[in-house]
Specification:
Two copies of one chain form a homodimer.
Chain A (H helix, E strand, L loop, with lengths): L1 E8 L2 E10 L4 E9 L8 E7 L6 H7 L3 H7 L2 E5 L37 H16 L2 E10 L2 H12 L4 E7 L9 H11 L11 H7 L6 E6 L5 H4 L1 H11 L3 E6 L6 H19 L3
Parallel strand pairs in A: 4-5, 4-6, 6-7, 7-8, 8-9
Antiparallel strand pairs in A: 1-2, 2-3, 3-5
Helix pairs in contact in A: 2-9, 6-8
Amino acid sequence: MKTASENTCFGGTQGVYSHTSKSCACDMTFAVFLPVEAKDGPVPVLWYLSGLTCTHENAMSKAGAQVWAAEHGIALIFPDTSPRGESVSDDENYDLGQGAGFYVNATQDPWKPNFQMWDYITEELPALIAENFSIDMDRQSITGHSMGGHGALTIAMGLPGRYRSVSAFAPICSPTTADWGRKQLTAYLGTDETTWAAHDASLMMEKTGFDGPVLIDTGTSDQFIDLLKPEALSVAIAKRRQEATVRLQPGYDHSYFFVSTFMEDHVAFHADALYTD
Amino acid sequence: MKTASENTCFGGTQGVYSHTSKSCACDMTFAVFLPVEAKDGPVPVLWYLSGLTCTHENAMSKAGAQVWAAEHGIALIFPDTSPRGESVSDDENYDLGQGAGFYVNATQDPWKPNFQMWDYITEELPALIAENFSIDMDRQSITGHSMGGHGALTIAMGLPGRYRSVSAFAPICSPTTADWGRKQLTAYLGTDETTWAAHDASLMMEKTGFDGPVLIDTGTSDQFIDLLKPEALSVAIAKRRQEATVRLQPGYDHSYFFVSTFMEDHVAFHADALYTD
């Protein structure tokens, strides 16, 4: 693991690191915020998965999460959204290929050799984090924005017991029925739609739910709301009788101005779960 | 004035606007954050002047100021740092020309026709703001980062009575004696150094001071600290017996991770002044 940069930030350290990923067969970059408390021992951690076109950098710089993570003594991890590089397959559209990994393990060519983002986020990167940072891997929670909200929800429900709480900002809720999903799941997983169900938050919610609290925020003026389909997740949460808070925020759109506005609430929500024994 | 974008943010509106500037003889872009209170009547305002290479966008997205401005019911204005465009003179170096206006009125060619940033920030843009936004121009304060900290301090001291308080993050404190300053003041104002004194915060502080409170933060690990020369301003403040808080923040560098860390303090500092009758 190489250190690209480390900046003092809210009393802690905002770092950017790179490593050669086995899962993705390329160099990957990620960011970690460590609160000052990490100097005295392992701290709980909140994962933040980003949306289409983003790298580790967007949320690190624009989501305003460090102030609240510092307040609660929680680490933040900002992974990249896909494998990267000249040797990695890509697509001319922004919503497929590099920057658009959708947090799945691709089984189809040309994506299969690199696009193993589920394994990367759930196995390889956690092992690297546990080895190199003062983080308590028994106290993890996860959040994300848009495609990253989809990732946070599907990963949290797909790995029962791993995360204490899950939240999402404007998540893609129904990728098996929406244009943000069908195209990518076809490309990465193939045309057998039965393989898609493990990557659809609404289907997973209805089938298994999440063993912990859930918080979802979506703006009523989100320009992509017809692609996100928050109604699919809302009905699944209601049918499941899932412990959850689902909020539609009047006037907010899909931008980081929306994410940063509600970040305080999300970090406090996760802190409640992370500090409960 | 044209609206480029408006996003709901912390209950208020983060907007980006453009207009044709007479002072700078080109189109200029700026950003305004209006807290929700602006709907009920004019609110006080904090100007934020940015540093070298920045546009209106950097601080708007990365400084984390809106959360605190919303808390205090204060508007924020983020101007650009220079005139822009193909018809505007530029330099091959990042620290001269476009993105590096240094908040002066250039008297030298080729800069003179466009680089009238003092007039733009102190006359033209305030008039445009007063006409178009629910902002109380009798309650203004000003801050900035690096070159923008230089701008905030020199403008605040150069216009007695205009601003109630002034603060700066890692300001360029001694442009008449440092490489961040001598080159630009020579280019914009010419070789007669007597014309430079009105654009050097330390010289102005020693000569006239500021009729209100001053707050300065600089990181001890600032990679540009030898160019900033905080010691020049510190001695001037002490000699002047200026009401001021000057802090050196251990471990912080020149980045927005530093700025965002202390933004809460700066906005609260200005709010105290802006809400005192």
